[in-house]
Every structure is written in C-alpha cells, then in structure tokens.
Amino acid sequence: MSRLVHRLGWPGTLALFCVLGFVAVGILAPWIAPWPAQGAGAPNVAAKLTPPSADYWLGTDHLGRDMLSRLIYATRISLSNGMLIVAFSLLIGLPVGLAAGYFGGWVDEALMRVTDVFLAFPALLLAVLMAAALGPGFLNSVIAVSVTWWPWYARLARAEGLVLRGQPYVEAARLAGVSHPRIILRHILPATARPLTVQAALDVGPALLTAAALSFLGLGVLPPTADWGQMVDAGRKFFPDRWWYSAMPGVTIFIVALSFSVLGDALRDRRKGAARASV
pLDDT of 108-128, one tens digit each? Predict the structure, then answer.
C-alpha cells in the first residue's frame, strides 16, 4: 500500500481504488443490487417516484424501480461504454499513427490528411451525427464516439514513431534485414505503450461522458437497459420535485469521470518523473 501511495500519491491511489470499486460493482451487479429484477428493468409501479427511504436508499424512478439497483446495473453499461470507446480508438489510431511516423514521406502525408479531416469536425457533433446515422444502441454508440476519438491516438502514436524510428536499435534491426512490420511490432510498439496507457486512462472519463451525452439525447443505450446518461434524461422532466432521479446518476458520472482523470494525471506525473530520472 505504501509503495502504491509513493508511486501514485494519495489522490491517484484513491482514484485507482475508486475505479476498481466501480469495476467490481459492475461485475457483481446481480449479487449486490438490493432489487436485481428492478435493476434489470422490471417495473414496480406501486412504488413509483418514492423518495429515498429505508426500503429504497436512493429513491425510485417513474416506474417504481429502485434507483440504487438501476445505478449498479448501469455501471456495467456505462463503464463498458467508456472503456470500449478507448479500446476501439486505440485499435484504429495506433496502427495509423505508427505507420505514419515510421514510414514518413507520402504515407505520413496521406494518413495525416485523413486524420485532419476527422479532427476538423467538433467531436461531439460528429459523434451525434454518426449515432443518428447508425441508430441508437450500445455498440452503435461505441462506434460513433470511437470514430471521433481515434485521430488523437493516431497523432500521439505518430509522434512516438517519428522519435523511435531513428533510434540505434531500430536502425540496427533495419540494417539486419528485419521486415518493417516486425520492427514496428517488436521494437516501436512496446516503446509507445507507456504514453498511450497514460492517455487511455485520461480518456476513459471523457469517453464515458460523451457516451452518456448520446444516451441523454436518446442515441445511446435503449430502455429498459440501465445507463447513467439515459437515467439523467429520464429524470429531468421530474426535476426539481423528484431531484434524486437525475441527481444520483449525475453524481455517479461525475465521480467516475473525476476518478479516471485523477488516475490519469497521477500516471502522467509518474511517467514524467521517471523520464527526468533517466536523463
């Protein structure tokens, strides 16, 4: 524990435990939710819009479903949304950026011009347009946001590739007749893992927020599946009289996004410290 605090600091350590806690909640949702059936979407109209009480700690929604159970079940969807967006973006942006940085020349020019086209549009606007074209749904929302996110990873990977392609060990591998794909996979890709991991940790929070915005607009996960953004949207028509309906998922989104941001900052600070120590 003390070593972890030394590496990440107290804010980073608390953020890490918070993130791991939410991941555990999502995995264990069917076993820890007070009302699992309601968490999965079963209505209980007799208890609709009940304020927080001993039976319903965070109140109920307009269909009488326990808000705590819904939030716990929504953790699976919302966290998966944010993490998959980052993963898909890496899968697209990483090979594009590494190819551009390693080969340079016309390959770099062509790939970066395509990247610039995507960067020319506001990210949220492009995500909304893509989601509207694809239709609502979990996978469609992941694809829609990933399309707007991958260019940033391509830029970062390209910058790393430009630096690493001139390193002596890369030149030695090239002179030894090692193929370009093998050089990229064996020598350049591992060296880019640390900065990309830091950036990925920083991006999960914003990706989650963007996915929640799509759900808020009705372009994300469809009912009765629970999603934090969708819950905020459903509760706004009852606000402020039934404040808990929108407030609880909103606070949850804030805590998770902040935790990923603080964790990413801690990892970035540690990386900078390690880089200074190696100089």
Answer: 899 999 999 888 888 888 899
